Amino acid sequence: QVQAVESGGGLVQAGGSLRLSCAASGRPFRAYDMGWFRQAPGKAREFVAAIRWSGGSTFYAEFVEGRFTISREKSKNTMYLQMNSLKPEDTAVYYCAVDSSLSNNNPRSLGTYEYWGQGTQVTVSS
After folding, report:
1. Is 63 helix (H, G, I), strand (E, B) or coil?
2. How far is CA 5 from CA 28, 55, 64, 69, in A?
3. pLDDT in tens, 61-100
């Protein structure tokens, strides 16, 4: 079993920045592919960004448009999402997702991930 805990959400004005963190725990010395998704009220959960354990390849949704950067600290099994130039439409609950299979599954697919955090609220005011 893996636990994923997000932190770093909050209220920010448009154009501001936030950094989200996700710490994965439960299996020592285990590698994970990880991703960020978000869900706005009344909308489906959507892919934001992902990062591979092996090689550190990164993937982004088109709407990120170079504003967000995903990274990780392997020694701590922690992933980050640096979000700059935030827009009101970025308002959503952001979820951390963990894929322990290391099977190079589609990082943009919800079904790839076995474990999910509880989410952290990001609110961007105009």
Report:
1. helix
2. 16, 24, 23, 19
3. 999 989 999 999 888 888 999 999 999 999 999 999 999 8
